[in-house]
Amino acid sequence: MLGLIRDFIWPRTCPVCSRPSDRPGRHVCSECLNRLPFCPTDGVCRCCGRAAEALSGEFLCTDCRAHRPSFDRAASALQFSGDARELVNAFKFRNRLWLRDDLVDWLEGMTRARFRVDEIGTVVPMPATLWHRFDRGYNQCDYLARALARRLGLPCVRRALRRIGHPKRQGGLDEDARRENVIGTFAVRDPSAVRDRTVLVVDDIMTTGSTLSECAAELKRAGAARVWCATLARSLRT
Fold first, then answer.
1. In angstroms, what CA-CA distances link 92 with 98, 102, 220?
2. Is the pTM of this model over 0.85?
3. 5 and 94 housed in the same domain
4. pLDDT 10s digit of each residue in the chain, 238 long?
5. Cα 194–195–201 angle (5° rounding)?
6. In the chain, at which end, N or C, are there fewer CB atoms within 10 A of the end residue's CB?
7. Does one domain contain both 75 and 153?
């Protein structure tokens, strides 16, 4: 009821088309929502989540066969293109944190479709680098992970992981260079928080999966039984 009253006093505007939203409590209108490029839930790699239009069911893609990631399963809600790209970038870089509920709707739907929620022990956000925390003033993955954990009824260990070292920016690096660049860049603060559990790591964008793989490797060294990765968007460059 409070949400309806708030929407009446301060109408929500769709960030895509700039028209009033017709979805109570949400900003993206139904027309723009129907045009967003959601990732398929069928015909995808059972490890990294990459889609193949010609296939159905699950398979293991050639990249995962050649370089098996340390995570056990990964999936994304959106394809990182068009309006979806603008929404994710606005949330990540331009302080549009009021988009969180819309984004977590899609992240939650994908998580329930692609993972066994009853088997997840804890939710962990991808940690931000010191520079990104200083530059943006927040860790967007922390916002996503906390909201997703509440909806799933799961604990969220916000500071389970920390970044160490000073790797180069991943942008512009090829796949092999990305894998090498992130080696040794994560540390687990409290192994007891992840030991013998299935950990769901929440990140914003997955490109090659090298960062998530290194993150998963460190979690497993600390005793995690399995590591699953849920990301808001998947880059089409892969």
1. 11, 14, 28
2. yes
3. no
4. 666 666 666 778 999 999 999 998 899 999 999 999 999 988 999 999 998 877 777 899 988 998 899 999 999 999 999 999 999 999 999 999 999 999 999 999 999 999 999 999 999 999 988 777 778 889 999 999 999 999 999 999 999 999 887 665 655 666 666 667 778 789 999 999 999 999 999 999 999 899 999 999 999 999 999 999 999 999 976 4
5. 30
6. N
7. yes
